Amino acid sequence: MRRSLAAACFLVALALSPTRAVLPDEVMSDPGREARARNLSRELRCMVCQNQSIDDSEAPLARDLRLLVRERIAAGDSDAQVIDFLVSRYGEFVLLKPRFERQTLLLWLVPPFLLVVGGMMLWVQARRRATMDAQAGNPPLSADEEARLAALTAGDRTADKP
Amino acid sequence: MIAEAGHYALVLALGLALIQSFVPILGARWSDPALMNVARSTALAQFLFVAGSFAALVMLHVTSDFSVLNVYENSHSLKPLIYKITGVWGNHEGSMLLWVLILALFGGLVAALGNNLPLSLRAHVLAVQAWIAGAFYLFILTTSNPFLRIPNPPIEGRDLNPVLQDIGLAVHPPMLYLGYVGFSIAFSFAIAALIEGRIDAAWARWVRPWTLMAWIFLTLGIAMGSYWAYYELGWGGWWFWDPVENASLMPWLAGTALLHSALVMEKRNALKVWTILLSILTFSLSLLGTFLVRSGVLTSVHAFASDPTRGVFILLILCVFIGGSLSLFAGRASSLKQGGLFAPISREGALVLNNLFLTTACATVFIGTLYPLALEVLTGDKISVGAPFFNLTFAPLFVPVMIAVPFGPMLAWKRGDLLGAAQRLLAAGIAAMIAIAIAWAWARGGSALAPLAIGLAIFVVVGAIVDLIERIGLFRNPLAISLRRATGLPRSAWGTAFAHAGIGIALIGIVCETTWNSEYIGTMKPDEITKLAGYELKLDGLSQRQGPNYRELLAAFTVSLDGKKLSTMTPSKRSFTTRGTSTTEAALLTRGVSQLYISLGDTSADGGITVRIYHKPLVLLIWFGPVLMAFGGVLSLSDRRLRVGAPKPARAQGRLQAAE
């Protein structure tokens, strides 16, 4: 469960968390731009690594990409333009968070779909159970049942006596 | 000779597993106790043979017998003894042997401790265990035999991957496997229940401790792995949403849901379908994890396609077991009578909601991990699904769970009082508000989410404490009575409180580490001083050292706070000559539950060295939380009703005797 929390907090921390593989000579002089560069770096994959962002990776390619991101930012690109530029150059593979597209429809929609459908199914089930409960609980015992119950409990009582 | 003996023992274990696969089932069909009891002997013997086989491999590694391919490829005569032993499971073949060893151990335990199980149930459970074991023995013997010889033995081995030469390898994989494989017991019990078409609260009472045990090991295994990555990989990250990590997280999520469902089944005889389904899913996800990690499919789909023997074999095992068990479930689930009616607002209802969110979270991890693979196989397009995706999808699913956690134990079984629970949690709510205010003020603005997350964590922790206070009636009764009630409280209640508080504790650590850590990255020369988070770090100097099978570059730092010297830290970089690789050994200085972390980069021509220094506030809470959760699990496991043993289900016994 802690992982999930991890996730919660990663979101929180995106803006503040540290540089990792970034080397001293890469850092941009303007802290605002540097922060943007790092946020972008975290969303971009180092393509020669296994599941590492270019912010985390020490591979030379990751360094090249980090410098490229900073170059584009220095040239006045917006975040979206930088991303578009990198995708046009390296393909969708470079994005660690895939865009919402026809290809990734299932990826994005299955979790909420499961939650909604699962929730609805459980709600219907709960209602059915509640009506069952009402049906099972409400009708009074018939005279026949009362008699049988009395007979049974009487039997118990006699059996209990030493 | 030792290798051949180990090999042969494994073949014998396979033979025993084959016998155990069908003889007990025939026995149950024919109501023949003698045939059913065969399973007991074969399960115990199987364990002995697999243990013998494993011991043989350990022996080969310890004696550095390089005529065995597995030893040659993963060992070195100069390697310290501990790594010679742990190196046994630091490779594919050996780790699979450890996997089946643990499986055989659990089978043996069921056989040895299951005397109070109905005979036919035990026979079925052990038969299912033998199906799994047989499949994996066959897998090892045909595709991953660790006992193969080399015709012309080399004099020296190729050494173990240096990253694995760490105490982490001694603890992490065995723990993880105890967790993964432990869930096979729940799986076998579920399949046995479906075959027999009978399941009751007594069944849940047997399944729950096994599930709990597996869950404890898996929790500790994941936490241990995370801490290992944190100090070994050199930049202080502790969770990467790597497919391999996800492979262990999925069974954990499903297992957590299973644990709670089994509880409801035991106490209220409800949620039978959930419990059976989750038993099947949890172990299926364990198998899936084994497939993902062991088939090589993750490194590249093409690598998998070019050498598919192993991957295809595990995939086959996966399909047969998951497909088979789910079809059995589909066919038989309707025959499981729903018992234990409950209102939506009740403890059962809360746990159903918990199941829904945990399984959806699990499905999210599942689809995120497998989607890129599936897409590449189907269309050839390559996409990446990484941390940003999981953070975005996983977090929203967990916030409601966290909010609901303190409510669960406060609600009564069958029909709960949400308003009453909320009133009793008022103290926790107030504590959360105060925590948010303090965190907000302390951080002086900044991100609004971090203080909110802290508040949520405090709500969970205080909620767990409030639950205990309510139960022992503290402040309402004289202290002596409260104390007496505290000692009389079932240990499972204490376990619940500890486990739930553990989640909150971990969350605090996660928020603080990710939000307020500070770092310095730069080049330092000897006698230079760096200031970070109030600490002064002076680089005293660099030195070289020769280790048993590596050379090491050490940097010595003097750490002082307010002019007073605290300690020396010596991070290092190790170069392993045999494999030509190097590892960074970070230096950690623990202050309370916060840590200073130094790792080294490359040396520059002018005598400087690149250093990364981090101050990680409250970082240890990230792992302290899971330890607390596991401790709660242990408390729960030692609860009286589990120690004393389950009562025999009179009806089930009667039916069996009637049949005899």
Structure description:
- In chain A, helix 2 packs across helix 3.
- Chain A has helices at 2-13, 31-42, 60-74, 79-90, 105-137, 143-160.
- The model of chain A is unreliable at 1-19 and 158-162 (pLDDT under 50).
- By secondary structure, chain A is mainly alpha-helical.
- By secondary structure, chain B is an alpha+beta fold.
- Helix content of chain B is 65%, strand content 11%.
- Chain B has helices at residues 2-30, 33-62, 69-74, 81-86, 92-113, 119-143, 167-196, 201-232, 243-268, 272-294, 301-306, 309-332, 347-379, 387-404, 407-410, 418-424, 426-443, 449-472, 479-488, 491-516, 621-637, 640-644, 650-659, and strands at residues 518-524, 529-532, 535-546, 551-561, 564-569, 572-576, 581-585, 587-591, 594-603, 609-616.
- In chain B, strands 2, 3, 4, 5, 6 and 7 form a six-stranded antiparallel β-sheet that branches.
- The longest helix of chain B is centred in the middle third of the chain and has 33 residues, at 347-379.
- The interface between A and B is large, with 59 and 82 residues.
How is this fold's topology laid out?
The complex is a heterodimer of chains A (162) and B (660).
Chain A: H1 2-13, H2 31-42, H3 60-74, H4 79-90, H5 105-137, H6 143-160
Helix pairs in contact in A: 2-3
Chain B: H1 2-30, H2 33-62, H3 69-74, H4 81-86, H5 92-113, H6 119-143, H7 167-196, H8 201-232, H9 243-268, H10 272-294, H11 301-306, H12 309-332, H13 347-379, H14 387-404, H15 407-410, H16 418-424, H17 426-443, H18 449-472, H19 479-488, H20 491-516, E1 518-524, E2 529-532, E3 535-546, E4 551-561, E5 564-569, E6 572-576, E7 581-585, E8 587-591, E9 594-603, E10 609-616, H21 621-637, H22 640-644, H23 650-659
Antiparallel strand pairs in B: 1-10, 2-3, 3-4, 4-5, 4-6, 6-7, 8-9, 9-10
Instruction: Tell me the β content of chain B.
Output: 5-15%
Helical stretch tally of chain A: 6
How is the main sheet of chain A built?
A: none
Overall pLDDT score of chain A: 75
- End-to-end separation of chain B in angstroms reads 48 Å
Morphology of chain A: rod-shaped
Largest sheet of chain B: 6 strands, antiparallel
| Number of distinct beta strands of chain B | 10
Task: Enumerate the spans of chain A where pLDDT stays under 50 for 5 or more consecutive residues.
Answer: 1-19, 158-162
Give the H and E element order of chain A: HHHHHH
Question: What's the multimeric state?
Answer: heterodimer
Number of DSSP strand runs of chain A: 0
Please state the structural category of chain A: mainly alpha
> Which secondary-structure class do the elements of chain B indicate?
alpha+beta
Strand content of chain A: under 5%
Helix percent of chain B reads: 55-70%
N-to-C span of chain A? 56 Å
State the share of residues found in helices of chain A, binned by percent.
55-70%
